[in-house]
Design a protein that fits this description.
The chain is an alpha/beta fold. It is built from five helices and eight strands. Helix 1 crosses helix 4 and helix 2 packs antiparallel against helix 3. The longest helix is centred in the middle third of the chain and has 13 residues.
Length: 154
Amino acid sequence: MTAFKVEHDPVEPAVGYRFDYGGRSVVISGDTGRSDALVEASRGADLLVHEALAGHLISRMSRLAGERGLDRLAGLSADILDSHATPAEALDAARRAGVPTLVLTHLVPGPPNRLAERVFMRDTDDTDVELILGRDGMHFVLPPGGGLQRENLE
């Protein structure tokens, strides 16, 4: 296991983790915005598990909260935009690192249904990376020699 620094200002330290075993590897981003260190640590990994925030939705929520005089909520929601990656940014990190499978997790705001999932995943349609929207209970197996098995333990 290797820990590496990621970008999550103003919170420091913030780290991601890479697990290597039996010729296979998994990287977990931790909370991070765009991070070159994450891309570098992910090079050649089999699976990247990356947090994701729908920036377009959070921006709108922040603006609406401000319009309604909810200044604290508006400020908090605006502050998290730079310290988390959008689905498209996570996908870009996986592409740049050459990771074939990306699982998005720690979703903000969590999409409650299939329509909301499509809105959440904006700008991720055209991809050569297998993109999976993570759900509680998902289980991934990386057998020796290659491939990826996905099981749902719900």
